[in-house]
Amino acid sequence: MTTNQPQTLSRKRVISLELTVDTYENVQEEILHRARNGMHGMICFANAHMAIEAQQKPAVAEAMSKADWIVTDGVPLIWAVNSLYGVQQERIAGMDMMPSLLGKAATQNIPVFLFGSTPDMLERFVTVCEERFPGLTIAGVVSPPFRPATEEEDEQIVRQITDSGARLVFVALGCPKQELWMARMRERIPAVLLGIGGALPLLVGETKRAPLWVRQMGMEWMFRLMQEPQRLLKRYLTTNSQYIWYLSRQFLTQKRNG
Question: 38: phi > 0 → left, psi -120 to 50 → alpha, else beta; which?
Fold first, then answer.
């Protein structure tokens, strides 16, 4: 069974992304509704890096256009929606959504699947879920090879996930690889696909969450940078400057056009 994006869903464009304007609770309930009914779906937890990837790479933009929800994970996107459109959009973070959905999946008998990451991380995921979410059905976990999959391999994973009965599929391949994969698989797998990015390392305890007061100030990115400087410094320097440039251009264009 397939479904298109709801006609009433509000979107606001920031640079290259058509961001979902809705509450955390509404988005979560719609995800669970689709999962309970075996419906297709795709959700991207967007940040500034994702906006630049989509702006500069047509294939990424095309992939993200197939998402049912592109939610405001990154605080800069929230600020942009508020400034450009006067909308008080809340944060919908993958780091919050993933454990919450796992808890609800355990109580609502919704099987889950994890695709991506490394074998070690998958083992830790299973262990954490057994401890934190008793009753959760983990329908399967797969760590794919670090190379482009063949069509035969794609078909094999489609069959494996479909046959497992999973209704929530957490995809941990990193941006933009996970968005490209989900776009290819959205219509082939009867489940909601969620690109969880950095939520998995946090869930299994490999990284720590910023304190609440840091998050409320919109400085969680700085906390993450301090934990992973080698991986994030270059990306932040490049991406953030490009993001400011593109957003300033959009702001001036909208102001000029009234």
Answer: left
